[in-house]
User: Fold this.
Amino acid sequence: MEKGNGSSDLFQKVIPLPLEEEIKHSYIDYAMSVIVGRALPDARDGLKPVQRRILYAMRELGLRHSQPFKKSARVVGETMGKYHPHGDAAIYETMVRMSQDFSMRYPLVDGQGNFGSIDGDPPAAMRYTEARLHSLGEEMLADIDEDTVDWLPNFDESLEEPAVLPSRIPNLLVNGSTGIAVGMATNMPPHNLREVVDACCTLLDNPDVEVGELMTHVPGPDFPTGGVIMGRDGIIDAYTTGRGKIVVRGCAEIEDAKRGKKAIVITQIPYMVNKSNLIETIVKGVQAGQLDGITDVRDESNREGIRLVLELHRDSDPHLVLRQLYSRTQLQTTFGVINLALVDGRPVELNLKGLLQIFIDHRRMVVRRRTQYRLRKAEERAHILEGLVKALDMIDMVIALIRSSEDPLVAKGRLVEELGFTEAQAQAILDMRLQRLTSLEKHKLQEELAELMAQIARYRLILGDPAELDSVVREELLEVKRAYGDERRTVIEDSVDDVSYEDLIPETEVVVAMTRDGFIRRMPLQDYRCQARGGKGVKGAAVKGEDEVSLVAVTTTHRSLYLFTDRGRVFSLKCLAIPEPKSGRGKHVSTFISLDEGESVVTFRDSALEGARFVFLVTKMGLAKRLPVGELEGITRAGRRILGLEEDDTIARVRFTGGEDQLLLTTAKGQTLRVSETEFRPQGRAAKGVRGIKLDPDDLVVGCDVIMPGRQVLFISQLGMGKRTRYEEFTVHHRGGMGVRAMRLGERTGHLVGAWGVADDDEIMVITSRGRVVRFSARDVSSLSRSAMGLTLVRLDEGDQVADVTVIRCSMEEGE
Assistant:
């Protein structure tokens, strides 16, 4: 029965709980343990618990900066066994980081041996390396034995450890901190000690100072690896709100190399970037074609600093390569600032003033508690000295009393009762050596007492006057500044040099081709060497099945194309967006622009509009319209309607004019009309235009050229026949006429493909419906009368014909 009752009592103590509630509470307990006990730094000393315990353990081992080194394993064991019962690897890793001058702006541990490198090399095992406190690390522990901080029991309550270090330096700001907790993280950059101390002094003088004024002293982070901060917006955000994004670049210079080449020399890299990984990324970028012009990568770094040498091709643009490095490697990184720290055990995001204020309040508390401790000790010592001096004044009575006493206890009591000493004074008199009876010793006691009384007055003044307390805090900060301050390493640029996608691509001449089915691609112009008239050309654009190349234009990679559709709309498309496949037809144009169902691109033009005032549009049915060029401003891939079209009519040619130009309109059957553009009044985007040239029922417009001095008109037919003709052979007529014959056509020629104005220095690029491209000089084309048939310009395979022609200007001002 007793056993049964015992079991019943035990069973009644089991409390049933919902699993959801138990998991919730357990997880919250775990999360708070990580937040408070591991991941986040204290806002006062800027240390996480493991860092604080390592520094304190080193002090307890006597590892001052002036003492010999001891094995790192000794430090790790002391820390783990007494204060931090976690993995030894984590403790050693933390100690290593506190000794690395590329991780900490001001190292707190002085290491001897292999403590890792900026290349990511791991440190040697703890049994091989040695460590001691850095002199700055000792400043973190200064006055810790003078009741300056609170103490907590260690994990087994056998010892006590400091809850926070006195910290004479504003460590959280000068060294920063990084940590990931549960549901939150901190990422604080390091700063320059001199600047932070100056800001602290400013805040001591004026508690109402604004963040903006503090930033005159602390302009931004100061990373141990140097670098350049691009722009101040992220810094302002971080200092005012506690969060911000800071763009950091490495330092690179362009130098002359051997044999007339250039080289990019990297001397500083962004904070927390692994140098070996950076080199590996650069090499992979070169192999993948993302970094142009780099021929060799050498690491010439030594103890004096970083030096990465990137040799370039002789014809490479070093500034372009630099922009590519910033965009595509870790030579430019973004440091996401999160100023999260523990304030009274709670995680709080702090701005610059808040961080400084918490440290100053901490120092005030440390100085106050230290002064109280010193005052108490001074008063106790003064009390003893007063008793000794008094005893020397009545030394005969004191000696007689002591000699007549039975034992020390009786003598002590009689000193208190008969001569008026306190118990502490009586004990000090009994402990006094006989040599103190000399007049010299009495004089020393009186001097010591006078000095103590002055110190007591000073301590009381500090404790009674907040301004005097602040002056002590200020002077100690200035001492730290004088002893450890150094020059800023990180440069801050006022503005961000944004690198656009175009900036990363060399501006090269390209050919853009489109098939009749709407597939578009670009190809390097240099692939098409200049040939003699009558050549067969090279393969230019792959076509498939019954598809044929229909449009071609020459432009550059940094320009855009205006794409005109059969529905009277125009779109703008960046040339870089057009694919440059090694094979295939490219991508369909509808991938890039918003075409309606059944709508297709009928022509496209380079968007270079230097000197142009109007867009001159001619439809296949002979209608013409002059549109102010301003109507094309702001066109995007969404498109804009610029011409109202009749049913079955489409845009044939688009030209940009200066307002007083003359134009040559050409039809497929060889009719040409020369007319002034002033005959066409400017119209709005919705207008349909007016008659430009009168056509036969089965004829259509294929050409519209702006007449310019020094040029002749080039005619090319479907079967590759062509010629040049002087503009003077065409007289000016009014709009709406049929014009005159431009070229004698027949079975050998086929209909005209178009007409283009060319100069002798220009080059002609012809693309056939089967994708062949022929490039030749304009001067190779014979100059014949307008009644002549012309000569063979392109030799075509059976069934092939000329699809489109583009003119490559000698100055590349225009491609048609």
Remarks:
- The first helix runs from residue 2 to 12.
- Confidence is low (pLDDT under 50) at residues 538-547, 811-816.
- The chain has 18 helices and 41 strands.
